[in-house]
């Protein structure tokens, strides 16, 4: 009995419970839904999943929105044309923006965890174009 358990235990410890996934988000000048967009513009992740923001077109970046950052989550800010990889550990809804094109509504949403997303989670204080774009994203995501 004992020698057998001694062989199995290390193997069980090596088996990952749930493998974290790597997702990709492309930063684009235009796609079928409009101009200055992330594609996809909504991702639902499990805690520990990562997103790689790809500088597919020039002059974009990816930065967390302070108004839409779950409590305890670390803010992040990629440089212009910089591909960054972000690990999302805290559950909740994250707003992500392209700083040069924020006023044009270049934003995306990342929901970590199973909680539903609702338009009530969009802060009133955001610029009109940003709230409009976030509303469109949420309506498609619901
Ligand atoms: Cu941009």
From TrEMBL:
Details of cofactor binding: Binds 1 copper ion per subunit.
Binding annotation for Cu cation: 60, 98, 101, 106
Database matches in CDD domains: Pseudoazurin
Cofactor dependence: Cu cation
One GO cellular component term noted in the UniProt record for this chain: periplasmic space
Top-level taxon of origin: Bacteria
Cleavable signal peptide: 1-20
Intracellular or extracellular location(s): Periplasm
Domain Blue (type 1) copper as annotated: residue spans: 28-112
Molecular function as annotated in GO: copper ion binding; electron transfer activity
Annotated Pfam families: Copper-bind
Keywords: Copper, Electron transport, Metal-binding, Periplasm, Signal, Transport
The protein's name: Pseudoazurin
